[in-house]
Predict the 3D structure of the following.
Amino acid sequence: MELATSARSALAMPLDSAIAALRNLPPGTSLREPETPDLRLLAEAVRAVPEGRDVAEWLWQHHPSAVSATVLRAQLAALSRAIVGFSGAAWESVFAPEAGLKLAGVSNSAGGRWRSVLRHSDAVAVLDYLREDAELCEAVAEWADTVEYGALAHALRSTGLLEDPTAGRGVERLRMLRDDELRLATTMAVAAQVPAMAIELNLDDVVAHRQTAGVREGVPVVELVLDSVAVGDWGFAVAVVVRAPEDVHRTGTSISIRSIRWNGLARISDDLGHEYLIVDREHYPLGAEAGQGKESVVHWCYPKPHPDATSLYVESAGHRVESMSFDTVEEAWPTRSITQVESASVLKASLVR
């Protein structure tokens, strides 16, 4: 079976695991130079954060202007998508239809020039342009409030900015950012270092023994089987077969549905102590077996295993239990809940040389 990643750089692993991997990559691993000065500064700083310190908070304390510019640039990119009705990963349009419609109407009145301004790499210049049109500025700020982009909303209303004398003329930093915004900047600084690459592999030509043993984690039970590891010129792919219970219960007119969603792998290391970045993850349904949802989850990793490594260890990121209940007669919104289940499940692959 031939598989290939798209040519892009990203992260498909928890941020803390990605930072640890970045610090423990095999010697000689090539990393990409981030495109903007702010990201270059943060990328270098990520590797210099003292052990035991919260990386996101440390970056904010030592490089507030770079963090502010990175967060604003990401939120302005989301704004650019929203004005054409695209709902990105942060659901900035689909769950904010009223704010999105108002934004679209005002942006049409403002003409097309401001859309090209949004593509400007200088976040401060974009903010200055938006503030020149009071109606447009307020529409964007209201949209930012709705989708919880606090940094952009505060910046547009000029209540959250301070000049940063350490960063040069014209650079501003925000008075405060939420924890998720700080982590966004850190995630972007890590992801910006991953080379954009296309890994083409034939998963029939595996370089690891197929694993017949798996692990069972949590209650309800999720079964994981490490199926194969295939190595290409620039990276490798780890395929894990997942079986997770799915059930539906009906009591009178009430129906409850429970499904399990595996979070993928959190960490990959070898027997030499090196760690690897998980840059993408793809799901391939394999059908259902007696109430068990079954799929193969392929993790694309960088770089290729160290030539002296004889084993790989893959660690699960746990899973989440999603439940929904509703009544077939009463007109009421369904009740939903999501519970995260932590896991320390580890599988081992013996590499064939």
